[in-house]
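Predict the 3D structure for this chain.
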Amino acid sequence: MQIPKGKKIYFASDNHLGAPTKEQSFPREQKFVAWLDLVKEDAAAIFLLGDLFDFWAEYKTVVPKGFTRTLGKLAEISDSESLSIILLETMIYG
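Done. Predicted structure below.
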């Protein structure tokens, strides 16, 4: 990956949005969205390294309910052609 001069690569992990409850994680979600707004200005890429949401899924296709601020901000950033969001999530199905 070529990093343009003046750009950075950012990493985030283990946000666990939704834990212990959706309401209690709301301030954390607000901080995360504010951080995304801050780093998008000089980011070449943002790596999200797992556990963005905290939920247990026993189905192969699940969309977590809520967190529209986070999902909307990620969509906004991913629409930018000058910035990549890389989501690395580990899911083990038994």
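The first strand starts at residue 8 and ends at 12.
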